[in-house]
Amino acid sequence: MSSKLLRNAALAGVAAAGAAVWAIAPRTFNDKRRNFVPSIPEVWYAHRGLHDAGSGLVNPSEVEDYSGDNPISAKEDAANASIAENAQYVALARRMAMKAGYGSPDVAGPIAPENSLAAFAAACEAGYGIELDLQLTLDGQVVVVHDADLKRVAGDPRRIEDLTYDELTRIPLFPGSKPGDLKAKPLPGADANPPLVVTPSTAPDGYYQHVPLFSDVLKVVAGRAPLIVEYKFSDNSAWDARTEELMEKGHALLESYNGPYVIESFHPGAVNWYREHHPEVCRGQLSWPAKLAADGPVEWAAGLLAFDWMSRPDFVAYDWTGGASPQVRLARAMGAMPVSWTVRSSDELAQCDQYFDRHIFEAFVPDAQ
């Protein structure tokens, strides 16, 4: 190879490295100081509240039975330990929810399903921070729910954007489920095409939780726990009137709230909205280690934090499996706080703890380890 080719290759490498640094760079220190930006409080953050049904929980009946004559491998041992930790977590969620005034020991089903008022009250009672998700209903109400539809959490395949908040109050989360269930059983007619599920005309009998208003969640938390508030969208590359509406309404509620919070989103445009309109708010870019072949070039680039030039985040909330990746380590070196999501066992914590400064968790009790 000639000296000219070597020189050009070296220059190209320097340019590529410079572009990567520019793209990933977080908000500057001077910007933070000028806008009096707070840091993320140093607590554990309960994913969607401290819950006894929903995201990340382990269903022992779906895990291979490792008993037998053969020695238990390290992987099998970790799985069994995770089941035990999961049971401890579910029991804590139920105790804390009842301590907060939700449910009672005679409630056979879930007391504090994910993203419910009871789950958030339980997290407050246990002394944890909270991570939660915002979406808009058909009638423009800001509610706290993760998925675009209710199939996993209520057995109802209809989308949040097609239901009013009044309808949501009559749809129980995890109906007929057991404490610790990962997902709800489909309602009658849910698997038909089109679905035959309709909203009940009256509220169901007995104790239940439903998708709550964000305003009601803030009243329950009342400043007792720091919040990580995620703005949730079905398409993280689109921006329309409803996207703008969620941003404006969500922030209006936070602006009148007297308690610590930070915001985050997978949508770089949503984080950039805070950069442009409310630079005083601590903001975070959510991401994960996407694969080019499986997830496409846009998701792959987002996983490399290539869109951080839009959001200039204060922190990077990254899938716990990607803490050692070059992009997360570079972002950390340049001043972005790395936050893991979502750690679900002490074994996972041991693998990723050195790479993150804050953790979002579920399915185990981290400070009991």
Automatic annotation (TrEMBL):
Superkingdom to which the source organism belongs: Bacteria
GO BP, sorted A to Z: lipid metabolic process
InterPro entries with a match to the protein in the record: GP_PDE_dom, PLC-like_Pdiesterase_TIM-brl
Transmembrane segments: none
MF (Gene Ontology): phosphoric diester hydrolase activity
Coiled-coil zones: none
Gene3D superfamilies recorded: Phosphatidylinositol (PI) phosphodiesterase
GP-PDE domain location: 100-369
Pfam families the record matches: GDPD
PANTHER family from the UniProt entry: GLYCEROPHOSPHODIESTER PHOSPHODIESTERASE, GLYCEROPHOSPHORYL DIESTER PHOSPHODIESTERASE
Protein name (Swiss-Prot/TrEMBL): Glycerophosphodiester phosphodiesterase
Species, as recorded: Bifidobacterium imperatoris
